[in-house]
Amino acid sequence: MLELDGCVFGNGGFRLAADWALDAGARCAVLGPSGAGKSTLLAGIAGFADQVSGTVRADGQALPPVPQHRPVAMLFQDHNLFPHLTVAQNVGLGLRPSLKLTAAERARVADALGQVGLAGLEARKPAELSGGQQSRAAIARLLVMARPVMLLDEPFSALGPAQRTDMLRLVVEVAAKVSASVIMVTHNPEEARALAGLVSFVDGGVASVPAPVEDFFARPPQALRDYIG
Length: 229
Ligand SMILES: Nc1ncnc2c1ncn2[C@@H]1O[C@H](COP(=O)(O)OP(=O)(O)OP(=O)(O)O)[C@@H](O)[C@H]1O
Prior knowledge:
Organism: Aliishimia ponticola
Helix content: 25-40%
Structural class: alpha/beta
Bound molecules: adenosine-5'-triphosphate
Distance between the termini: 35 Å
CATH topology of the largest domain: Rossmann fold
Strand content: 25-35%
CATH architecture of the largest domain: 3-Layer(aba) Sandwich
CATH superfamily of the largest domain: P-loop containing nucleotide triphosphate hydrolases
Keywords: ATP-binding, Cell inner membrane, Cell membrane, Membrane, Nucleotide-binding, Translocase, Transport
Number of domains: 2
Protein name: ATP-binding cassette domain-containing protein
Domain ABC transporter: 2-229
InterPro entries: AAA+_ATPase, ABC_SmlMolc_Importer, ABC_transporter-like_ATP-bd, ABC_transporter-like_CS, P-loop_NTPase
Shape: globular
Largest sheet: 11 strands, mixed
């Protein structure tokens, strides 16, 4: 379980409050107007934003202040793929930043690449992949990292609608395999529906308590109606 216990996260002078919890394996889309604080929420959970007050816990343990020590994997729109490394190396980074992988770890990387449909492309560089394949490589890295919390910040907004749906399906599959909770920022209500879980709406300096997606869209807050038109 991920708990945001009375949290206020800071980014410069900006403040974002969140006071809720997500069960292990739960999936939550984060919607809200531009500049409302969606990325600040993820940064707070990941340890990159200031913790002004409150505590972030995973499975009852307060998370360490250093982001690298948090049980969190992140995926951004640019996928954080290193251009000079091969696909297999980019995925291997999720296991060991030194890339000195054991044979078993190399096998895990190969297995993850197979699971996301990239078998045979291990030796390519990211520039030699399509946008969708780059997304798959980034998802393979999430799979090998097997962290209990996955934070995604508009990860597939560069892809077309059909591919986006495929990628979301893959994320759901990968998260289920490692029993991870997923929090995903999106501007797209359809993506929130495709994630098929909960929705937190960020507005007025607060990330609302996640509500089931169907309830949320059945009674959307006025700010959401203003925002999606
Ligand atoms: N380093 C900073 N110093 C001061 N204010 C900042 C800083 N970084 C972000 N902000 C402000 O914090 C607020 C929240 O930013 P954040 O990026 O979390 O919003 P967002 O909802 O993710 O926006 P978008 O949808 O446009 O990506 C914004 O109003 C932004 O101007």
